């Protein structure tokens, strides 16, 4: 594998990881990260990091324990903790953010907003029907739509009422409850108002439909796309979603009408990335694709070592993608381990620039996600 400097490889590549002290000495091997790294911070089972334009790097945790913070604010340059907010025992969702608050909800039966400049709770509201549900009920982050934050409460088993719960961003007051006919198949996405449509969220459902809901809970449209779609991406007036029909679908965001279908060789687990007139999507077929966002024409396809489980995410003129790792698949599959785990760096024209494999690497555990935030790339491990 070619050697890259930190700037040449990824511009900046901090790692966000939970370290397992002593692994290298016990195994007699060099278990340091297989890519250039700026810093490492200890967070137990970190959820995907977010960095608001005016705030610190924010990270949640998948840990169920009291002592592990629900939300931590880290210095993006050094990884040092600025503040942390703890909560009751219970698994928590990944974070959703707006220009003031970070949002999450918990199997402890609470929905919480944290002012990320002050590091203090803004509100903390009780929920029903989540404390006895399976851990998958908190798999997806809250979605901000206009003046409403929408909680995607949906489990992997039949022990919870699958629903979208709308709450006021300002004070947590309940706005609506929209029950779903089946579990969510992937993460919903915010959809702006336009062409006569209200602001709202677009949600993929395991019954094979994609549905748009307004911020009053009313259903704006639904379209049958076949079996289990992936997480949703919304860009401008178009919704993009991968389907188990082995297609990438582009739908009109205002009406749900299909615009084009791009052929894949398998389903897509991860959310498509839309950038500069292109749609990038990683498939379970071991390929990374680029399509023209307007026409659906496939621009290129590159083979990888495994199914894409996170990404791609864009950093400057580069795409960073994770293959392998463990993935909680909706439906009957449950948590599926994919091997090997590797991180790829491609140019936006598909040229391979870097390939980092985690075979035999123990310190920090499995890589679960990678995100671009500001001018850095952050990697989350077990």
UniProtKB/TrEMBL annotation:
Q: Which Pfam families match?
A: PQQ_2 (PF13360)
Question: What's the protein here called?
Answer: PQQ repeat protein
Q: Cross-referenced PROSITE patterns, in alphabetical order?
A: PROKAR_LIPOPROTEIN, TAT
Signal peptide per UniProt: none
Where in the numbering of this chain does the Pyrrolo-quinoline quinone repeat domain appear?
70-193, 207-336
Q: Which InterPro entries match?
A: PQQ_b-propeller_rpt (IPR018391), PQQ_rpt_dom (IPR002372), Quinoprotein_ADH-like_sf (IPR011047), TAT_signal (IPR006311), WD40/YVTN_repeat-like_dom_sf (IPR015943)
